[in-house]
UniProtKB/TrEMBL annotation:
<keyword id="KW-1133">Transmembrane helix</keyword>
<dbReference type="InterPro" id="IPR051267">
    <property type="entry name" value="STEAP_metalloreductase"/>
</dbReference>
<comment type="similarity">
    <text>Belongs to the STEAP family.</text>
</comment>
<feature type="transmembrane region" description="Helical">
    <location>
        <begin position="426"/>
        <end position="449"/>
    </location>
</feature>
<keyword id="KW-0274">FAD</keyword>
<keyword id="KW-0813">Transport</keyword>
<keyword id="KW-0410">Iron transport</keyword>
<dbReference type="InterPro" id="IPR036291">
    <property type="entry name" value="NAD(P)-bd_dom_sf"/>
</dbReference>
<dbReference type="InterPro" id="IPR028939">
    <property type="entry name" value="P5C_Rdtase_cat_N"/>
</dbReference>
<dbReference type="GO" id="GO:0006826">
    <property type="term" value="P:iron ion transport"/>
</dbReference>
<keyword id="KW-0560">Oxidoreductase</keyword>
<dbReference type="GO" id="GO:0008823">
    <property type="term" value="F:cupric reductase (NADH) activity"/>
</dbReference>
<keyword id="KW-0408">Iron</keyword>
<dbReference type="InterPro" id="IPR013130">
    <property type="entry name" value="Fe3_Rdtase_TM_dom"/>
</dbReference>
<feature type="domain" description="Pyrroline-5-carboxylate reductase catalytic N-terminal">
    <location>
        <begin position="30"/>
        <end position="114"/>
    </location>
</feature>
<keyword id="KW-0967">Endosome</keyword>
<feature type="domain" description="Ferric oxidoreductase">
    <location>
        <begin position="256"/>
        <end position="393"/>
    </location>
</feature>
Amino acid sequence: MTGRMSEEMKPGSLSLRPLGTAAAPKPEVLCIFGTGDLGRSLGQRLLQSGYRVVYGSRRPHSCGPLPQGAQVMSHAAAAQSASMIFICVHREHYNFLETMAPNLEAKVLVDLSNNLRKNMYPDANAAYLQRLVPGADVVKGLNTLSAWALQNGLLSGKQVYLCGNSAEAKQAVAEMATKLGLTVLDRGSLSAASELEDFPLRLFPEWRLPLKVAVGLTAFFFFYLLIRDVIYAYVEKGNDISYRIMVSLANKVFPIVSLIMLSLCYLPGVIAAFVQLYRGTKYRRFPDWLDRWMLCRKQMGLLALGFAFLHAIYTFIIPIRYSVRHKLISRVVNEDNETTPFYFDNTEAWATDSFYVLGILGLFLYVLLGLTSLPSVGGSLSWREFSFIQSKLGHLTLTICTTHGYIYGWKKFLLPSTYKWYTPPGYMLCLIVPSVVLVLKVLLLLPCVDRTLTRIRQGWERSQPREEMGDSKATNL
């Protein structure tokens, strides 16, 4: 036995190769029709992901600069070298595909085309392509990617859509997209291609809900404060202070909207946590309204940052306004040109300094949150670092800004003159939502909350009829 082992271990009996050469598979070849900005950017990204890229061109020797490492040849030769072909040309140039239909038999054609406007053609580009090349498997997808995003590598976590009649073809495209760092969502058969081609034509689709909320809050508080401050002074006291609309009134609306928008970024997360505790699981889907709310938190936060910037700029110009300078001079010099004493209040000094310091710190953290939400910055952070900034520092920002608002109000809520026409001031209304968010966040940190919600859920389950309980258990199993 020892002799047999020694024979097996002889150098001549072993096949010695450099480490890793035997296990290294050949990279898959992918073909791209189109050498424009989109085609070049996609090819560069595919090369970086480990694929071999072959371009098909009408003029292989004069098609312009291509990514280093890619090959270029005629359309027919390029199509024969790959099983997946990306169509990065406009619909009006599809005619050449019909003439080379035999070369595209059983190939996967990924249509990335878009139109300049809706209903530009009677049918979808992908459906038209499928009719031209009936022997190929056409998949509509990746059309929401821009050349700029591909060049800068801003693809991590980005959602793309696919549709097609062949499940195998869609699976192959989905695997390729996943290697690029994309998140794939299957929209069904090729009949959904028209919907996918309309996606890039939508104007800021992810910003619509946050913009509606911001515009609604701005309009409400503007007219609310206009009635409380300007109209009230004119009706009750006969004072015309309409000049305050441009700066003073706007400088009250901006911080109110900013603080509410910031709190709306963290309120859905708190609601989701309570829902998960109540259900006893984190693997059930949230309601659609909560899903939609959570998906637009980034946009709400950036709008809150924009309103905070406006508030800071408006605050800087307050000392140079004519009305403010006139008021300061009138406090010191009376009508007889005599100076009046101006007493120093230590408590007021502390409150004012604390108010401004918290405002500065809040704006600094606002900017930090806004910068890390950008893909180019957030992509350089680990998930733990990103979560720490967006969650821990985010709640700290909300706490500081809320305290900033409370110090602004100070003891004013105790004065009857604060409630003009029996209405509370705007800063009191804007503190409701952030205060609720912070209180709920503190409750989540208490262990008794989990036990209480568990008892509530168990009591609700016991109160259900036996048939419903049986169905529920069967569903869970």
